[in-house]
Amino acid sequence: MTDHDESLGPEGYDVTAVEAWIAANVEGLTPPLQWTRLQGGHSNLTYGIEDRNGAAAVIRRPPQGELLPKAHDMSREWALISALGGTAVPVPKAMGFCEDPSVTGAWFYIMGLIDGHPLYNSDDTHLWVPENKRHTMAMSFIDVLAALHDVDPDQVGLGELGKKENYVGRQLKTWYRSWTSSITAADYDDPRAHELQHFFLNNMPDQGPARVVHGDYGLHNVLIGPDHNVAAVVDWEISTLGDPLADLAYALNPWPDPTDSEPILPEAATAPNGFPSRTELAQRYAQKTGRDLSKLDYYIGFNRWKTAAIIHGVYARYCEGKKSTDGVDMDEMRERIARSLTLSEQAINRL
Q: What is the bridge-based pairing of β-strands 222-224 and 108-112?
């Protein structure tokens, strides 16, 4: 959340122009609208809107100011919710997309409002999912991912979403470059980062047919409905085509398992009692999709390594003074890099 004064009106939106565009282009919404800032959604400017008849929706645009070329890609999110609307993957209804920056300074889109809540931490889990419903919720979480990975991107118009081949290889290249370019600023290197990268390159499983990979599928990016099932998957902005097992491993990594050498952080959304283990969730996915998970630990290790590289890059930016370190525990961040590499090593040792 920013320090924007909401009494000045919704941040980043020319309300008069946007409401005129909605009146002309979106069925089912009749301005004037009531605007309410919604939490989450990364730094995208996301508002709940309600018309005079009580019809509700959500509007989303990128943050204001200069953006990285591929960050906050509204057209990608719009393409995904539009294409997946007719599949077994629950997504918000695609209602309207504006590619004319003269309306409010950026592209924006409007989607249906979902009755549901993301789970960011254990407090959210305790608040929204009673213990006797957590098994149901976890199975719904994995079933939805299985449904996504069953969609043939070519058949729903998503065949051009990204390169289909060598997803893990491309990721290894990107994040290894991030690691090596951050070493000096971070004043931190770990030989395991290099050894693991070589291992992953030399032992890469065959990918199989490319599928839509969400890229950040977790309890923070699904909305849990009143029935404790996943009501919708959101935040599609880094989705692409690639290896579904890499997407699966990423989704499984926050879930605890009896084989783990150290317990999950108590504040994690998956920490409360009542959830199935990571192994049970993997078995459920295999059952639903028929995919061979014998190399799953390769992908778990790869994702742990990638996490180390991401945190290392963020740590380097703090060290350079590019981000404020107020309230940031820099020692803890360094430990997280090392811990992620340890978890990566443990995963490949199980192979």
A: unpaired
| Segments of 70-191 assigned E as strands | 94-98, 108-112
Name the helix (H) or strand (E) containing 241: strand 240-242
Q: Which two tokens stand for residue 24?
A: 């002309």
- CA nearest neighbour of 110 among 31, 220, 7, 218: 31
Q: Do you know the residue count of the chain?
A: 351
* CA 195 – CA 40 distance, rounded (Å): 36
Say which residue the tokens 């997280």 belong to.
336
Amino acid in the structure at residue 344: S
Contacts of 224 (CB under 8 A, 6+ apart): 116, 117, 118, 119, 128, 129, 137, 230, 231
Measured CA to CA in angstroms, residue 230 lies from 11, 91, 118, 319 at distances of 29, 10, 9, 39
Radius of gyration of the chain (CA): 21
Query: What is the share, in percent, of the chain residues with pLDDT greater than 70?
Result: 96
pTM value is 0.91
* Other CB atoms within 10 Å distance of the CB of residue 268: 18
| Interval 32-44: pLDDT, tens | 999 999 876 557 8
Domains belonging to the chain, first-starting first, are 6-112 (3.30.200.20), 122-349 (3.90.1200.10)
Write the pLDDT tens digit of every residue in 218-264: 999 999 999 999 999 999 988 999 999 999 999 999 999 988 888 88
Q: H or E element: which one contains 304?
A: helix 296-319
Amino acid making up residue 95: M
Tokens for 287? 């059952």
Nearest to 233 by CA among 261, 254, 204, 212: 212
For residue 259, the tally of other CB atoms under 10 A from its CB is: 10
CA distance 99 to 107: 5
Token duo for residue 30: 């009749």
